[in-house]
């Protein structure tokens, strides 16, 4: 199955506490692991940047959920491309603050 990568940035609509981010991440990791999606989430100064890696149909399905998530806005796609090899194979969602 060919691999694909989506990368976007967005602006948080609320200031995320560590607790709120951990809740988001633990839900995301369960979903992503079940759908063979790996990646990384950065959160800094109210902005998110996320890399999603996996099978293209699974990524677009997740992205459509993320797009409609009321916790963020100004979602801008930065990359939508085939991926030769996972960069975050060991991570259902790595996180950096
Ligand atoms: C910045 C950001 C990144 C997110 N990343 C993921 C993710 O990687 N995986 C995931 O399942 N949900 C992620 N979510 C949560 C989804 O937007 C959504 O709440 C979740 O998929 C549940 O959707 P549902 O209630 O329609 O099933 C993210 C939300 C935000 C705000």
Short description:
With about 100 residues, this protein is of the alpha+beta class. The chain has helices at about 20-35, 55-65; strands at about 5-10, 40-45, 45-55, 70-80, 95.
> H/E series, N to C?
EHEEHEE
Number of DSSP E strands: 5
Within the largest sheet, what's the order of strands?
4-1-3-2-5
Low confidence ranges? none
Average pLDDT figure: 96
Describe what this molecule looks like in 3D.
The chain is of the alpha+beta class. It has a single domain, classed as Alpha-Beta Plaits, CATH 3.30.70. It has two helices and five strands. It has helices spanning 18-34, 56-67; strands spanning 3-12, 38-44, 47-55, 72-82, 94-96. The chain has a five-stranded mixed β-sheet with strand order 4-1-3-2-5. Strand 2 (38-44) and strand 3 form a beta hairpin. The chain binds flavin mononucleotide. Residues 10, 24, 28, 31-32, 41, 48, 50, 62, 65-66, 69, 71-72, 93 line the site of flavin mononucleotide.
